[in-house]
Amino acid sequence: MLGIQSSEQLAKREAFELWEDLCKRTGQRHDPCCIDVFMSAISQARGKPPCPCWHFTAQHLTDKRFPMVRYYGSYYNKMRGCGNHQASCH
Questions:
Q1: Is the dihedral of CA 7, 58, 50, 28 positive or negative?
Q2: How confident is the model at residue 27 (pLDDT cuts 50, 70, 90)?
């Protein structure tokens, strides 16, 4: 759907642009959590070790174009500095 056929092509893309392209192509606004998935996949395509997508959430939370309307679980606790979290893997 997004025209990506290889990890080399993915490595050249940006997560926000992929998300916006996905929204345009499907005609609906997708959950901004998709951006985290794209960031994780792009990071790995660029040669970094695999990292769960939720480790990328904080990178787009401050972007006013992508407000989060809900926080719960480890995202919320991590942002508040609570809980026992693994060190970032990227």
A1: negative
A2: very high
The token pair that represents 42 in the structure block: 């792009």
> What gap in Å lies between CA 1 and CA 4, rounded to an integer?
8
* pTM (2 d.p.): 0.69
- Residue range 6-28: mean pLDDT, rounded: 93
78 contacts 38 by C-beta, under 8 angstroms = no
* Residues 12, 78: Cα–Cα separation, whole Å: 30
**Euclidean distance between CA atoms 73 and 88, whole angstroms:** 17
Q: Where are the domains of the chain?
A: 7-80
